[in-house]
Amino acid sequence: MRYDVIIVGGGVAGLSCALTLGSMKGHFEWVENKKFLVIDNNSSDLLKALLNNVPGIQKGTLGRDAIKSLREQAKSYGNVDIIFGRVVEVFGKKGNFTVHLEDGSSFQSDYVVIATGFHKFDIKCDGIEVVDNLKSPRPGKVQVMVDSESRAKDGLYVAGLLAGVSTMYACAAGSGVQVACNIMAEYVGKNVVVHDVPEERHSEELNREEV
Ligand SMILES: Cc1cc2nc3c(=O)[nH]c(=O)nc-3n(C[C@H](O)[C@H](O)[C@H](O)COP(=O)(O)OP(=O)(O)OC[C@H]3O[C@@H](n4cnc5c(N)ncnc54)[C@H](O)[C@@H]3O)c2cc1C
What we know:
Elements: E1 2-8, H1 12-23, E2 36-40, E3 50-51, E4 61-62, H2 63-75, E5 80-84, E6 87-93, E7 96-101, E8 106-114, E9 130-132, E10 142-144, E11 151-153, E12 156-158, H3 169-188
Parallel strand pairs: 1-2, 1-8, 2-5, 8-12
Antiparallel strand pairs: 3-4, 6-7, 7-8, 9-10, 11-12
The protein binds flavin-adenine dinucleotide.
């Protein structure tokens, strides 16, 4: 099955990326028929966390509840599918990637985002460089070398701890959101964001801002 963007890893970064891509629906004509897929093997670090210091998330929230809520938020736009499985290979180039899963299934996409955390990187994927993680408080973690746009190579983006951000929820989420904006900028040929405003402003101003 074919998607526009496949996101490998449905933790904080992957789901934040997916929900930002999904949220563009209804705001921009060019995203109307785009479909996004998250493939996750359900082992996010967040599942073990108790969140007291995440901006905007109520103190005392369990990480597993935050993940559940992120999944629901991403799916709420109707253009994000989330499936469970382990990705073993990402093959191809921009416009024609194939993502292989352990169970033998495969999916195609224009773009791939890898957001599999910093514990290890064992996905077969040509043309990317895996190095020691520079931001981890503990040794033995990894990251993938990326350019200033979070690209490991043309069409292949990296988000979250695997891209080398600090191991904090907000850093991982921000990285995923930035990758979503970078991909959309590639599709449209200019920078775009989605800003919603409350109903009462509708009559006075446009509720969608294109920057
Ligand atoms: C015990 C603990 C407590 C924490 N407490 C806090 C806190 O209080 N405040 C705070 O800000 N941060 C906290 N954190 C950090 C926060 O959880 C991480 O920064 C965040 O989860 C990183 O997001 P990520 O998306 O990069 O990685 P993850 O959230 O770990 O997501 C990676 C995802 O990739 C998936 N994946 C991996 N390999 C594959 C594969 N081959 N195929 C498919 N899917 C794959 C995994 O299943 C996982 O869902 C805590 C972390 C831990 C471990």
